[in-house]
Structures are given as C-alpha cells and as structure tokens.
Amino acid sequence: MSGLRVNSFFLGNSSGVNFYISSNTIDKDTGKLQVSNCSGSKRAADWNLNVTPGVNTSKVTVSLARSLQMCLPNATDCCTTPLCVVEVLQVLACRDAVVLARLLIQAEIYANSSFMGNVSENASVIPNQVFQPLGSCPCDLTSGACDARCCCDPDCTPNVKQLFNGSCFPGVFGGDVNPPFDQLCSTQTTEYTPDWFPFLCVQSSLNNTPFLGYFYHGSISTPRVPSFKLPVQTSPGKLFTGYRQGDPIMTEDDEYFTIPQQSMVGQCVGDAPVAYLQDFEVKCLTDLASYREGLPHDVRINSGTGDFIQQNVIYRTIADTGKFVANSESLPATGVLCQNVTFAEHYTFLWEDENIEEVNVTVFLGSLCEGEILTQRFTAKFVGLNSDNAAELSCNPGYQVGKPVRAANMNASDTSGSLKIWQPAGRGLCASAADRPVLFGLDSFSGCVLEVDINEDCSLLRGNVTEKLNSLVQATHVGKRGNSNYSDLNDWVEIIRSPNVSVSPGNLKGMCPDIPANLNIRIIFADVGAVPGIPQEEILAVQISYSTVMWQFQCGLSCENTVSLLPITASVQFIEVPARPPIPMTRFQINYTEFDCNRNDVCWPQLFYPLTRFYSGEPYSQCLAKGLSLAFLVLLAAILNHPWFSKVWDNFLV
C-alpha cells in the first residue's frame, strides 16, 4: 500500500460477519506477527475501516485519516521524514468469535512533496477579448527572435523588417486581426458595389466590428418554437394528454426516462431517452474503470395521464459470465479489484391506447474485475394489453415505425404468414440461426453461412439455398396497414416475385455458377394522412428478387475432408414515395425566377421580412412601431416634396 486508501473484497455471504482492524500487529522484540482475536473496532490509530456489503461480495476499504504534509517550523500533525508512514495493518473477518479471513497490509507512504510556500498573488491579466484580441501577432512564433515575414513581430528591428517589408504575411496571421468588413461605408469600392450601398452601409469604428466589440447588442425576442421538454403536469392538474409514438417517456421529476442506447455513430449513450412504442435491443462495451450506473430503478414514470407508476424490478444473478465478459479465462487473482455491476436490463412496457399501464424490469447482476471487458445488454419492449402474442402489431390504422410488418398466406387454410430475416448466433451457421420479423421503416441486412462440400452438386446447392431464403418469406400478401383484416383482400397487397434467373450450364467440381445467395426485399410505402395528428403510413407494394453469385470451393494445402462456407444474405429496404404528386409549378414560377427565393440571391418577397412574425431579432411590437414610423416619414417626405404643398404653405403664411 502506497496511497491513502486501499480496497479489497470479502467473497461470500457477509451476513453476521464483523470486521475489525488493528495496527500493532508485529511484536517489536521478536518481529513476529501477533496472534489476534476477534476483538477491536473499525478504527485503529489513524486508520479507518469501511465495509460496503453486496451480493455475495463485500467491499473492504482501509483509509488513512491524517495529513501527509512535511513539517514546517512550529507545526504539528505532519511528517518529519520523507517516509512518513511505515506500518503493518491487519483486518479480521469474524463470525461468532471465529476468524473467517485475515488480510495483512504493509503500508509505506511518503509525504506529500507539493510546494508548501506562499503563492504570489500576481497573476497575468488577460484583456477583454471582446474588444482586444488575445494574440495580436499570430505569426510571432519564436520567443526572443525575429520571425521572417512577420512584420508585427516586436523582436524585429526596423533594419531587419526592410529585408521582407514587401512580402509580409497578409490577413489575420500577419497581425491584421481586425480588418475592415465589407458592410463598412469606408470600404466602398467602385467595382461590384450596388447603387443602394450608401443607403444601407454601416458607419462604425474599427473598435466595434464583427471581429471585435459588440457589433449588435440589442434586445432579442425569444422565438416561438416548441419547448425541448414536454409540458408534463402533476397529478392534481392531470393535463398530460398521453403519449404518441416517438414521444420521450417522462418521469415524476419532469425529466426524461433514460436507458443506454446506441447513437448514430455506433457509440453507446448512457442517458438516451426512451421513445414511446419504439422497441430496441443494444449491446454496450465497458470495463470497470468506465462503468457507470444508469437511472435508479425507484424512479416513477409518468403513465401519460399525469399519474405515476412504480417499476416492478426483479434482480437475478449471473452465474456463467462467459457470454458477457471477455478476458476472464481464470479466476481473478488476489488483490485484483472486482465490483458487482449490472450485466443486463430488460424493460417491458405494458401499454394501452396512449398510456403506460405497467413497467416490468429484469436486472441481471454479476461480478466484474479489472482487466475484463463487459458486454452489457439493454432491451426495451412495448407490449399491448390487448395483445395475445409476443409479436406486437400496430394499433393505429397505419403502420408504426419499429412494429412488425403483417403478412398473410392467402393460398393456405391458415392465412397467417410471416416475413422474417435472420438473426445469427454463435458461429453464424444457417442451421443454428434464429429469425426475427421484419420491422416497418427499419432497413435491415442479415445473413448466415452454409457449409458446402467440395463434391456438392450445383443443382442441389441451388435448391438448398433457395429453400433457406424462401423460408424467410412464408407469405403471398402483405398488409397495407397495421390493422389489415384477413377476411378483406383489399387490405392486402400481393408480393411481386421477380422471375428466376437463368442458370448457366456446367457442373465443375468445386465451382457452381448462378447461386441465388442474396434475397432482396423492397417495400414501397407512403404517408397517406394523419389520424389525431399521428402520420399514417401505408404499404403500396412489395417486391422480392434474388441476386446470384459464383461459388468456388476454397481450401488450404489440402482439400480432403474439409468444407467451404457459402454466405447467404437477406436485405430489407423501405422506399418512401409521395402519396400524391406534387403540385406542378405555374408558368409564372417557371419563367420569372427572380421571384423565387430558392434560386435567386435577391428575394423580393422578403423585402418586408423585418415586419413579419418570422423575424426574431427584436420584439414584434418594436418592429411594427419602427415600420409604421418609417412609413410615416416616407409619406411625409412625399407630401413635402409635392408642388401643391408649397402653395398651401405660402397661402397659410399670408
């Protein structure tokens, strides 16, 4: 032990076990360890003992409670020598006056060598970077020496500057950190300057520009945009109108209910909100150093009506950690830090209409040690109360993203069908691969591998691969909507199957052409409207096609008694098309492009943009008042310049 704290673990049931610490464990005369009994306390001299019980594991912490600073004149409670603490400690675990375990700790702790003198209060004063740049000469890279072509370098004498005076670094790097901007009236040039530039240019000093100073520090009105958080109300008001698909689930404290999920770049985000009616299953890699606990399970969840429901949590212990932990070929050695952590969390949300009725959580715990990599698993599944099976269907007329696509086999007595893709496990063989339903709106790509012998017949191989792929599509029709009725054929679209590809003749040993190894499922859908504000998606067509590959047996030095692997894949692609054709452009819109703000730099329809409610630079009332004042001045100027006004004014003076 060389620090202020050391941790160890007591493996086993700690119920009824007492822990003691003692410091005088070595006989000074004989130098032998003294026989200790189960008596003492959790404090010995300057040492404290703290025990954190857990599931079959208790964390034992021994810490030093004294100062390690070197002694100054007339100081106490300090270290007189650099080697401040040299002691042997003994921690006992006893039950009914019987010693169950003994831990010996040899502590050699050196004094803190940090500076103990008075620190000067003189600090560098950094100027306000709003009005003065922190680096006025960026090209000054060498301290105490003149940098070539750096005319702002204070180390360059006038004689030296004459050598490169005509080739100084331009722009900000050369020291011009506050150049005149294009809108400044003094920068007007005769070339490429519009006629209205003197009317709209800016009169400002170089101390107040877009580069330095508060170029515009007026009042800003808050734009009227939807709040980032939902307006959740407490139970007395009950103004919360329920969840819609994709809405984040809220907690009692008006915060998001979070479960670790994968981001768009594949990394795990620990505080990702859970979206209503969107199932997910993620795996996150972590180790003991970066492990972090998630949201506590005692947090109550807003049901959708303003009421709050408690999570039903079941804790289980992982006995076989081989499926979760890597680099754990042997038991952890003595002294290796281990901790009881969460291996997996499975959430099941029972819902009805727009409300959550119940939340069931299963938490799997296990021991994780230093040097091990843990694959955490987190799943969330929404199950309707009116559902009789595990495959949850859309409750709305249209499909919901993440819900299974409905399929039917109209040629069989049992019209229920299936549309699935593989979910390989283990070695990825097709014989052991599981499957899962195709989820609406989620493009998928999966596959498995077949073991093929060198003497495989090509015709039989094509038939075997085709049979494997056809097992994923046990249907002739796909439901247009999530609530399609099996008895109404108009609620279903027939699956379009592309014709089989032609097979090349020939049957060479170890080589087979035109193997249909890729299954392509294309689903065309459209947004056909909204029901209570929720967009309704409808499937318009489904096409299935096959892509062929050339299979060739691959082996090493010897091809006898070996097999080759043939990968076969299945892909699902969702293609959205407009339900209604876009409104065609008029002849005026086609010919007069100067009125199109998307194709022209000058946008005349936005001439009075500051007077519209889309402008958020100032409060709308101030913009309206300034606009009316400007209109009044323009009208007054027009009246004063009219000839009849001078006649009226002359008659009035007479």
UniProtKB/TrEMBL annotation:
<dbReference type="InterPro" id="IPR057724">
    <property type="entry name" value="TCTN1-3_N"/>
</dbReference>
<dbReference type="GO" id="GO:0007224">
    <property type="term" value="P:smoothened signaling pathway"/>
</dbReference>
<dbReference type="GO" id="GO:0036038">
    <property type="term" value="C:MKS complex"/>
</dbReference>
<dbReference type="GO" id="GO:0060271">
    <property type="term" value="P:cilium assembly"/>
</dbReference>
<feature type="domain" description="Tectonic-1-3">
    <location>
        <begin position="398"/>
        <end position="577"/>
    </location>
</feature>
<dbReference type="GO" id="GO:1904491">
    <property type="term" value="P:protein localization to ciliary transition zone"/>
</dbReference>
<protein>
    <submittedName>
        <fullName>TECT2 protein</fullName>
    </submittedName>
</protein>
<comment type="subunit">
    <text>Part of the tectonic-like complex (also named B9 complex).</text>
</comment>
<dbReference type="Pfam" id="PF25752">
    <property type="entry name" value="DUF1619_N"/>
</dbReference>
<dbReference type="Pfam" id="PF07773">
    <property type="entry name" value="TCTN_DUF1619"/>
</dbReference>
<dbReference type="InterPro" id="IPR040354">
    <property type="entry name" value="TCTN1-3"/>
</dbReference>
<comment type="similarity">
    <text>Belongs to the tectonic family.</text>
</comment>
<dbReference type="InterPro" id="IPR011677">
    <property type="entry name" value="TCTN1-3_dom"/>
</dbReference>
<feature type="domain" description="Tectonic-1-3">
    <location>
        <begin position="241"/>
        <end position="383"/>
    </location>
</feature>
<keyword id="KW-0732">Signal</keyword>
<keyword id="KW-0970">Cilium biogenesis/degradation</keyword>
<feature type="domain" description="Tectonic-1-3 N-terminal">
    <location>
        <begin position="114"/>
        <end position="221"/>
    </location>
</feature>
<keyword id="KW-0325">Glycoprotein</keyword>
